[in-house]
Amino acid sequence: MKIEVTAYPRAQQGTGASRRLRAKGRVPGIIYGAGKAAQNVEFEHNALLQHLKLEAFHASILDLTLDGEKQQVLLRDYQMHPWKQQLLHLDFQRVDRDRKIHMRVPLHFVNADISPGVKSGGGVVQHVMNDLDIHCLPDDLPEFIEVDLKEMQLNQTLHVNDLAMPKGVEPTSKLRHDNPTVVSVQVPREIVIEEEVAPPVTEIITEAPAEGEEAAEAAAEGEKKEPAAEKKEAKQSGKKEK
After folding, report:
1. What is the Cβ-side half-sphere exposure of residue 179, based on CA atoms within 13 angstroms?
2. How many CB atoms lie within 10 A of CB 184?
3. Of the four, 22, 41, 83, 159, which is 20 to 30 A from 12 by CA?
4. Over 70: is that where the pLDDT of 13 sits?
5. Across residues 39-54, what is the average pLDDT?
6. Where are the alpha helices (DSSP H) in 91-171?
7. Which of 92, 98, 169 is nearest to 135 (CA)?
């Protein structure tokens, strides 16, 4: 996939000049490498913003046109505004076709659904790495590296040195030495959902008084009433004697 980028010479430099440039819908950048002097350039902002959405734009050799002359470059860095969809700056490196380049290319995982570990073993694919640092000549640079999972068994792990690399492409020496895990098929972890336990309900039960207690209470009430009745009768008898 060939992606073309158009650049324009940029005369003014500095923070103020870059701010005015962005206000006009342009974005500042720089081109360097291949034994030539670095050159300050500018780009159409919206066109570059659309290119950045393409995976291949980040890991492919690009055709850059400047003053009518085409040159091959790689995107090396870019800066975005902290919260706006606005490009602030881009760095491109010229490509020397006779020298190996260092690039980070994406990994494409295929045939996961038909692998024995997933299809019959009930496992799930766990991606540990999604891209890979490689060395190669510019003409051998792949857009991506395919990782075929059709033979993956349950609890099997693929490492960097297990990958089938395209012709002329090799992982960086550090990756070859460390040989980290790229992908594995593992039994999914069981998710245990605890049932909600209702808070205990305290039931207050009032016991009925026993028969003896009822009699005692009645007797006590009777004793309270008897003195009052006796006083009333005494008053009435006193009136009659008079």
Report:
1. 7
2. 19
3. 83
4. yes
5. 96
6. 116-119
7. 169
Q: Mean of the pLDDT values across residues 46-65?
A: 95
Tokens coding 22: 């962005």
* Mean pLDDT value of segment 159-166: 97
Q: Return the residue matching tokens 């490509």.
A: 95
Domains of the chain are: 4-95 (2.40.240.10), 102-186 (2.170.120.20)
- The count of C-alpha atoms lying within 13 angstroms of the C-alpha of 20, restricted to the half-sphere facing its C-beta, is 7
* Residue closest to 110 by CA, chosen among 135, 144, 161, 59: 144
**Position of tokens 């670095």?**
38
By C-alpha distance, which of 99, 174, 94, 96 is closest to 132?
174
pLDDT tens digits, one per residue of 190-236: 643 444 555 555 555 555 555 555 555 555 555 555 555 555 555 55
What's residue 213's pLDDT? 53
